[in-house]
């Protein structure tokens, strides 16, 4: 990994706490970053692995993730995600649910019932 990519995702305690809140809500079936229609559309379109085969789209997703880390409020994050191209947003939805499943398995003993 080159130096530029290492600097894309600066992680602070605030960011980690925010992600924890997002995933805790997700475990209860409330997906704070995405509307129901965004989630539904993402799972009805092309699979994320097919989308990730497009190198330029992969770069867009990396930039979107870096931008999301810079946004402080939940409302601003939601607005930012809504403004993304559908393919980029779809990948973020798939990544979110993949991370949510890993988060759930990591905290298996403490996890509430999963409603997604």
What does this structure look like?
The protein is mainly α and 116 residues long. The chain has one domain. The protein contains seven helices and no strands. α3 packs across α7 and α5 crosses α7. The longest helix has 21 residues. It is globular. The model has no long low-confidence stretch (mean pLDDT 82).
Number of strands: 0
Largest sheet: none
* Low-pLDDT residue intervals, each spanning 5 or more residues: none
Q: In one word, what is the shape?
A: globular
User: Mean pLDDT, nearest integer?
Assistant: 82
The amount of beta strand, in percent, is under 5%
C-alpha termini separation: 34 Å
Q: What class would the helix/strand composition place it in?
A: mainly alpha
Radius of gyration (CA) equals 14 Å
Please name the defining characteristics of this protein:
116 residues, mainly alpha
SSE topology:
Elements: H1 3-6, H2 13-27, H3 36-44, H4 48-51, H5 55-70, H6 74-83, H7 86-106
Helix pairs in contact: 3-7, 5-7
Write a brief caption for the model:
With 116 residues, the protein is mostly helical.
